[in-house]
Amino acid sequence: MAGGRPYGNPRLRSLILLVSLSLLSISLLFLFFSPKSLPNLSQNPSLNPTVDYSFLSSLQKFLSSKPRRHRDDSITSAASDVRRLDELVWRRETERLYTNSISSVVNVYVYEMPDKFTYDLLELFWSTYKETVNLTSNGSPVHRLIEQHSIDYWLWADLIAPESQRLLKNVVRVYRQEDADLFYIPFFTTISYFLLEKQQCKSLYREALKWVTDQPAWNRSGGRDHILPVHHPWSFKSVRKYMKNAIWLLPDMDSTGNWYKPGQVSLEKDLILPYVANLELCDAKCLSESESKRSTLLYFRGRLKRNAGGKIRAKLVAELNRAENIVIEEGTAGEVGKAAAQQGMRRSVFCLSPAGDTPSSARLFDAIVSGCIPVIISDELELPFEGILDYRKIAVFVSSNDAVEPGWLLTYLRSFSAAQLKEMRINLAKYSRHFLYSHPAQPLGPEDLAWRMLSGKLVNIKLHTRRSQRLVKESRSVCSCDCKPANFTSARPLS
């Protein structure tokens, strides 16, 4: 090359070598600390040590420092005057409309119900859970059932916490009824169902019904803007027909009619909330360590004989019981069963989630927090937060007919490629935070998503409330939530 060799200068060679080594070091550091090697905590959450995810731990602290009560100063000498409250609401909404101050924040008024509906029931649970070994008719521990349906506690505890301690900004507790978009009824229906004698429970249900339906806000809307936690399908059953206009917090819809009567529940007015998972979160470190240990193709542990839609379990057992690389076990939700299920799910690629006595079960959410891809076989199942989350990214849906066809299910599961399975597990890691109840409630946790879903229902709630207020008695134009003609005689006019 004319002019001599360009790299002949020793000092220049040393400089080039130094730069090359520096670039190589930087590249190695980048590869080592890249998101592929370090877990992304925003996608693969670990449990925050300053947050309570345990119902028992959170409840103990809650009962040791009861939040102070707030006096209701929205209605004074005219506490029963529904028309006055309606006028106050109209003024507030008109002001918001014309000052362009409408926002996505949900304003919630929390009723200060007598302690027998709230604190006394929590104290009853706390004082008995260690000693009680009672089982339900299907073999499940009573107190474990209460825990997995404890959504009423998690929502209420967050709402009444001091504002300085709350992290959720899309829901605000208000102390005047005219400022409220929604009214929260803090009655522990599941605890009362399981821990009180039958007649005592029914009596308390009737008292709660009367207390709520005597409120001016209830009579103004017919209960349409009231939130009623009835997450266990047996709870509040004797009187809930009188509160069918309210927003029910449910585990599923069960359109078969086994648990809810026609016209009582609908996706338009009600909200599906996840069970509290029975198993511990398999966090980023756990997911990484368990990846190579997932040698079982399909896992199930639970009661093999169920009623209603759950009868498919027996058929699935007959189809899958002798198949290679499949684990099907009889088991219950006690401590031994919990440990076995946690170990089994963390060693499996897919986890079977068939219908039980109801279309849903806590098993689905146990699988999600365990990093095990759910195989959902429940034709009537409705899923929580489906307006926000796409479950097709984390679960496999199979019809009951296909599932019991000889050889079909296993052939289908084995058809998934390694890349598809990896992508679904990545999405499971991202989604797990949406099913971890906690105190304080965390952004993007189930409490947060619940209020986001409820915010989307507000306009429709106001529509049905105002139509019910202005339509004449016996009008045929009254619509129920499923838009079938409804008799207006049950609606109460403003007085």
From TrEMBL:
Organism superkingdom: Eukaryota
Protein's membrane topology: Single-pass type II membrane protein
Keywords: Glycosyltransferase, Golgi apparatus, Membrane, Signal-anchor, Transferase, Transmembrane, Transmembrane helix
GO MF entry, a single one: glycosyltransferase activity
InterPro entries with a match to the protein in the record: Exostosin, Exostosin_GT47
Pfam families named among the record's database cross-references: Exostosin_GT47
Record has Transmembrane as a keyword: yes
Localisation: Golgi apparatus membrane
Membrane-spanning intervals of the chain: 12-33
Domain Exostosin GT47: 105-412
Gene Ontology CC annotation, any one: Golgi membrane
Family: Belongs to the glycosyltransferase 47 family.
Protein name according to UniProt: Exostosin GT47 domain-containing protein
